[in-house]
Amino acid sequence: MPHFCCGEPFDWEAFKRHMNFTDEDLKEWMSDPKRVEATKIMCSPKMQRTWLIVEVVKSKGCANGLKPGDRLYFKGIGNLDPTRSSNWCGHCMMFLPLIQDAIHNLIMQGKEPKEINEILYPNYFSCVDTTYKYGWGYVECRAFVVDEDDLDKV
Predict the structure, then answer these.
(1) Would you give the DSSP letter of residue 150?
(2) DSSP string, 36-102
């Protein structure tokens, strides 16, 4: 199921249905003003037009065959698009939620993709394997953000 997306005015009833909330769940959700504002940002069309791309930049001895140029594409920073993405190894995803949370927080602060790419540090991470010398292979990845209009340009 795709991420919930809604413009202004925000449709709280549609959000409630999407989240499978009861009336009481939604009331509790909306009791926190910060959460209300965050929900509007996270579910906005602008957010859903913002993509996180994770790209392999270095690989040696990867048993799953990851190689430079392999990519993962996440619409709205968190929703994997399997039609665009390469095959991937779970060991190379350990740090991904940290990167996603950092980017979500920057977007909530009003940062644009170009700004995020300039200030996101570190934006490189590696798989949890300890290189072929001690375990399996080694893979380094770079994370960056693009607007949907620029998706096919990178």
Answers:
(1) G
(2) HHHHHHHTSHHHHTEEEEEEEEEEES-TT---TT-EEEEETTTEE-TTTPPP--GGGGTTHHHHHHH
Q: Rounded to whole angstroms, what are the CA distances from 68 to 60, 71, 121?
A: 10, 9, 21
Longest dimension (CA), the chain: 56
Q: Tens digit of pLDDT per residue, the chain (154 long)?
A: 578 999 899 999 999 999 999 999 999 999 999 999 999 999 999 999 999 999 999 999 888 899 999 999 999 999 999 999 999 998 899 899 999 999 999 998 999 999 999 998 889 999 887 677 777 888 999 999 999 999 989 9
Rg (CA), the chain: 18
Q: Which tokens belong to 16?
A: 């409630």
Q: Select from 54, 117, 51 the least CA-distant residue to 86.
A: 54
Q: Report the distance separating Cα 128 and Cα 130, nearest Å.
A: 6
Q: Residues 6 or more apart from 139 whose CB is under 8 A from it?
A: 56, 58, 59, 62, 66, 89, 92, 126, 127, 129
Contact 37, 107 (CB under 8 A): no
